[in-house]
Design brief:
Largest sheet: 4 strands, mixed
Structural class: alpha+beta
Oligomer: single chain
Strand order of the largest sheet: 6-5-4-7
CATH topology of the largest domain: Sufe protein. Chain: A
Protein name: Extracellular electron transfer flavoprotein PplA
CATH class of the largest domain: Alpha Beta
Number of domains: 2
Keywords: Signal
InterPro entries: FMN-bd, PplA-like
Shape: globular
Organism: Lactiplantibacillus nangangensis
Pfam families: FMN_bind (PF04205)
Length: about 300
């Protein structure tokens, strides 16, 4: 499964195509290529010129080291995560690890690695370096959406994506205070809100969950334009996307909200066929709201989502 649509970029595909823009939010960056023909000889050859996507909205990450730490152990381990950003706004070092009470890494737990490899066909020794490498590579500009979920380590991959995104947001703000995640804690009653700051293809995400007795009782995920109108009500957009992707915002937004309320767990939300990117963005933001609820922090999360274009 490719987790492509997150908060740090925008598709470079024209909105008229709707194939990508319709399935995602303001969150997946990509590069486009064009072919130029050389007429210097009778046997003209064509070559592809890769263009660098230009950041049109959203702040670049500031140089520094940014840290996140889980507060509680799960199955004897908890996550420690840091990224280093250079003066060009790129991640040069990703250090995601799971450690025990003695400070030893799960990567070095031979028995654990052997057993997980037998059951899941992968293990921390394999997937941790792979995830770190992905963040230092294609996702180095902050585009967490280019990171693959590692087969056999879905939960750890999604946790990595969630935490990486929170670190990117901290780096955009230049906030070097360690992010504390009260993992495993019960969610506190209240309403928790997250909003994207920047529009992509005319829309940005607004999202709120209501928690009661450690259950998500209401989920309101939406994509709205500058007039506050929902993408659900954009008849032309829905018709065109339905034609191409066999689904549309009018279908997948309610489905995602319903799934989150049913499960009260973002990782158990079903991906809607034809709207994979929006589904993945939904899960990423839902996880961040869940973390806020675990801390009882009702302050609105403003995501300075990066938007790219040619």
């Amino acid at each position: 499964m490719k987790f492509k649509s997150v908060i740090t970029g925008a598709s470079v595909v024209a909105i008229s195509a709707l194939a990508l823009a319709g399935c995602g939010s303001s969150s997946s960056s990509s590069s486009s290529s064009s072919s130029k023909k050389s007429s210097s000889s009778s046997s003209a050859k064509s070559s592809k010129v890769v263009k660098t996507a230009k950041l049109t909205a959203g702040s670049k990450m500031k140089a520094g080291t940014y840290k996140l730490a889980e507060e509680n152990y799960s199955h004897g381990y908890k996550t420690q995560f840091s990224i280093t950003v250079n003066s060009k706004g790129k991640i040069t070092k990703s250090n995601y690890d799971q450690i025990n009470k003695d400070g030893k890494s799960k990567v070095d737990d031979a028995a654990y690695n052997k057993q997980m490899k037998k059951v899941s066909k992968t293990n921390p020794k394999t997937y941790e370096p792979k995830l770190n490498k992905a963040l230092e590579g294609a996702a180095a500009t902050g585009n967490v959406g280019t990171i693959d979920v590692v087969s056999g380590a879905t939960e750890s991959s999604k946790t990595f994506q969630n935490y990486a995104q929170q670190l990117v947001q901290a780096a955009q703000a230049g906030n070097t205070s360690t992010i504390k995640v009260n993992n495993g804690a019960k969610m506190k009653d209240g309403t928790y809100t997250l909003n994207e700051k920047n529009y992509s293809h005319g829309y940005k995400v607004t999202f709120a969950i209501t928690v009661k007795d450690n259950k998500i009782t209401e989920s309101k995920y939406d994509q709205v334009n500058k007039d506050g109108k929902s993408k659900v009500d954009d008849a032309a957009y829905n018709k065109q996307m339905k034609k191409i992707s066999k689904t549309d915002p009018k279908t997948y937004e309610p489905a995602l909200n319903k799934s989150l309320v049913k499960n009260s767990d973002p990782t158990k939300v079903d991906v809607v066929t034809g709207a994979t990117e929006s589904s993945n963005t939904f899960v990423l933001y839902a996880e961040q709201l869940q973390n806020a609820a675990q801390n009882g922090n009702t302050k609105t999360i403003t995501v300075d989502n990066m938007v790219f274009s040619d």
